[in-house]
Design a protein that fits this description.
Elements (H helix, E strand, L loop, with lengths): L2 H5 L18 E7 L5 H16 L2 H4 L2 E7 L10 H9 L14 H6 L2 E4 L2 H9 L8 E3 H8 L16 H16 L20 H23 L6
Parallel strand pairs: 1-2, 1-3, 3-4
């Protein structure tokens, strides 16, 4: 499947229209280009942070996946990316690259992309994705401004998925009002082919973006 077929013509499957997504789970989809560097790092760091803050039953209701607009289908994670995850204590094993498909966008409650171009590609696929698709750093910037007290609180009986959906709605409402001072601030650059130091820099950027997102999603601070 070519990248073009994902975004136009027969690649858009009319029977994949967005319907009600299961309310008992919340699905996060990370998107980059090859799905072997940035989005796997973000996926596995997010999974680690969820699993360290929530009990297993609750953590398992937030699903985290990734794909690439030019995904290296079946490829392992880039070696330096795996090294960075290992250094953060996150699981790098058992990963295989995927190409971004319509069904992944349909099923996602929140799509977080590496760049503005990736965001535009996801939105161009349709499926009413515009209000639930952000770059990772854009979403982080927006959720930092949201008063946690306005969100459903799991400590007071609210469901964690209810809180997560409310957070996405609040971020979408703020997007037109809170613009980045510089569009580059919402971008996460590709370290593919770079030395390990660049991957560590990328991993640090991703970690510092993921941490407040998971805090906002769960209402729980990291135990760093």
């Amino acid at each position: 499947m070519t990248a073009a077929s994902l975004h136009a013509g027969p690649g858009i499957s009319p029977y994949l229209a967005v319907g009600p997504r299961p309310l008992d789970h919340f699905r996060i989809l990370y998107v980059c280009t090859g799905n072997i560097c940035r989005s796997p790092i973000a996926e596995r760091l997010t999974r680690r942070e969820l699993d360290t803050r929530l009990n297993p039953r609750v953590a398992g209701r937030i699903l985290v996946e990734s794909a690439g607009t030019w995904g290296h289908v079946g490829a392992p994670m880039e070696e330096h990316a795996a090294t960075v995850l290992d250094e953060y204590g996150a699981d790098s094993g058992g990963f295989t690259g995927r190409e971004l498909l319509d069904e992944y966008v349909v099923e996602a409650d929140l799509v977080l992309t590496a760049t503005l171009d990736h965001r535009a590609q996801v939105i161009s696929m349709g499926h009413e994705a515009g209000l639930r698709t952000f770059t990772l750093k854009e979403f982080t910037r927006l959720v930092r401004t949201i008063d946690p007290g306005t969100l459903p609180d799991p400590r007071r009986g609210a469901d964690v998925t209810e809180r997560a959906r409310a957070l996405v709605r609040a971020a979408a409402a703020l997007r037109g009002w809170l613009l980045a001072a510089d569009p580059e601030a919402d971008e996460l650059h590709d370290p593919y082919g770079a030395p390990i130091g660049m991957f560590r820099n990328c991993g640090e950027e991703i970690f510092h973006a993921v941490d407040p997102v998971v805090t906002a999603l769960t209402g729980l601070q990291a135990l760093h």
